[in-house]
Amino acid sequence: MQLTTSALSLAIGVGLATTTTNAFVVPSTSTAATLAINGPSARSSSAAAATTTRSKAFSPLTPLNMATDADDEIERLRSMAANLRAEASALEAEKVQALADAAQKAFDRFDTNKDGEISLAELKQGLEKSLKIELSDKRVKELMDAFDASGDGALQIDEMVTINLFRNKLESLVREEKRLALEAKQKAEEEEKQAALAAARLEILNEKEPTTSDRFVSILPYLFPLMDGLAYGRFLLSTEDAAANPAVVFLAVLYGLYRAVPFSGFIAFFALNFLAGTPSINRLIRYNMQQAIFVDIALFFPGLAGGLLGALNLNFPTAIQELSTDAIFVTLLAVLGYCTVSSLFGVTPDKLPLISNSVNDRMPTIDMFDDSGSFIPRQLRQEEGDEDTDKKDDK
């Protein structure tokens, strides 16, 4: 009887405690019976279970509480972002308004006649007062074109910008002008350097207009082929009329002196060939030296043809032999006459077929000298050019 009374009292006490703490756990009849049977140990276990249940019911870190806190943080961040956007919009509006006020102020300052637009003259005058510099009409026109969106040659209020923008544009134009001026200066210096180099080359390679003395000296090399060609004029010069001619007598004296020197032909050939390669001698003289050598070489072929015909025992009539020999000598005199007259007038005698072309190929030119003034023969320059071409092809 006492055991049953104690069990009931404990059950009532547990029920009251549960009701007081608002726990939604009500011990069942089996639980009370268990407490009644097991005694104090069962009561201790039941009390511990009740304590655990109460702690779980009142824990602040439940999923429901965490979700509520996250929603509150998101709302707070959204509110802050909205405030920042509002502040940025206000600052942007203030900036736009400040620019508009500055443009209006600048427009009123430039529009001196108050006609609602700024002309080219007003822009120039306003810039000179604002920037304190003298501007050319061309520079002011460039500024006008840069900001004149309508293209009517004047600035309206909606096209007006601040003085700082005008200054920045002007500075960019000035920098461009300085750059162009520097490039022009560098180009002028390079051209002056090339002109000085060309002048130095001309001092080395004498291609100036021949003087009077140069003209007379330039005809002397043609005495070389004339002396070697007198053999073809033996029929014409042996007549009685020719023997009485002072020119023929003079040529006879020269021919005697020429033949009196041993190997005179070889000496004359090498002397003319060496002097023709001296760049300090006037070009007309050097040209005639080269051409005299080629004319003398051309005289070798008729003699070679005559020797071959003699070796083949082909004997032509004497009249034909004299006529062909006289024709060669007359042709020689005509060639030498043309070269002499042309040279005396200071004109290069470069109209001889085949011969003049060969001489032109051998004449040194300005491009055969490098920057240091050293002479580079045409053949060597061609070889270097071929090597450069091969290198480019290999790449």
Protein described:
Helix content is 73%, strand content 0%. The protein is mainly alpha-helical. It folds into 3 domains: 2-57; 89-204, Orthogonal Bundle (Recoverin, domain 1); 212-364, no CATH class. Helix 8 runs parallel beside helix 14 (283-298), helix 9 (223-229) packs parallel to helix 14 (283-298) and helix 13 runs antiparallel to helix 14 (283-298).
Short description:
The chain is mostly helical and 395 residues long. It has helices at residues 2-20, 29-38, 40-57, 63-110, 120-131, 137-147, 163-204, 212-218, 223-229, 234-237, 240-243, 246-260, 264-276, 283-298, 300-311, 318-344, 355-362, 378-394.
- Total count of domains: 3
End-to-end distance, in Å? 119 Å
Biggest β-sheet strands, sense, barrel: none
Radius of gyration: 59 Å
How much of the polypeptide forms β-strand, as a percent range?
A: under 5%
> Roughly what percent helix?
over 70%
The SS-based structural class is mainly alpha
Low-confidence stretches: 1-61
Query: What is the number of strand segments?
Result: 0
Query: What is the global morphology?
Result: elongated
Averaged pLDDT: 74
SS summary, helix count:
18
SSE inventory with pairings:
Layout: H1 2-20, H2 29-38, H3 40-57, H4 63-110, H5 120-131, H6 137-147, H7 163-204, H8 212-218, H9 223-229, H10 234-237, H11 240-243, H12 246-260, H13 264-276, H14 283-298, H15 300-311, H16 318-344, H17 355-362, H18 378-394
